[in-house]
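Sequence only, no structure available. Ideas?
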Amino acid sequence: MAVKKQVEKDFAKVLFVENNLDRKEVAARVKVTEKTVGKWVIDGNWEKMRISLITIKDNVLKEHYNQLDQLNKEIASRPIVRDIPASLLKPIKLKDASGAEYLEYPKIKEEDYPIKIGNTPNTKDSLVMTQITNNIKKLETETNIGETIEISKQLIQFIGGQDLYFSKILTEYCDAFITAKMKK
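Reply:
I predicted one. Tokens follow.
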């Protein structure tokens, strides 16, 4: 498939799948026949994509926030384990005044010993939290081609209410911009 045709097909896919335009509108915007768009829709399974894409980004974001929340709860609920030497955790044989032997654990203050495992993030936790946070930030801030099209569409609709002639010109410029962006 020639590069121009592939760009047209990719643009049509975005318009159909992400922007929910019908085949006729897509054909008009991409400047191909409605029959061509229909073939692309069927061959590429775009109807299924359209349905599944509606909530993908939101679901991924929710899942990332849930993972972060779950990790924070798990860290907060961890029991604190002190680094007490093993010798102090074993009973000592002692004798009472009558010479009878008995076992007694040494008296220690746990807070005198450093925390071995606590309810603060360790290095592994921090790396996981950083990765999840970076994924959230990327999803929330990165503008994909679908969002570019959506913003262009809203701008064209707004301008169309003011100046129909200019909105048609703007539509052509937006389409050219999106096509150029998709080639990158």
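Helices lie at 3-18, 23-30, 34-44, 46-53, 56-77, 123-141, 145-162, 164-183.
Hope that gets you unstuck.
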